[in-house]
Amino acid sequence: MNPTVKAVLLNERASVLSAIAAREGTVSDLLVQLNGVENDIWRLRHRLIDLEAYLVGQRVELPADAPSDDVLAAPSDAPGLPACKPLEDFVRHRSGKRKLLAAVPRRIEDARRSG
Q: pTM of the full predicted structure?
């Protein structure tokens, strides 16, 4: 085979392999992001289930002979909504902050062991 053709083919092969490796890295990054989004959706779904259960438990039964007024008066002791986690739990932080937050429990354990 002509050395020039062989060099061109080897160069093309190397660039294709490099592109494949770059794509694999991108795909793995996307899979990590998808996993994080799935976890966030799971948490939000369960939060909605909890809120729905709470609202069903707080349902106000109207008497059979309810007044025919167009406007119904709200009960005087209307219950408040349950305390919910702040939305920070559902916001994905930049990787540096996530690593820092993940390291906090380990630092506490290390401090307990050394103290």
A: 0.36
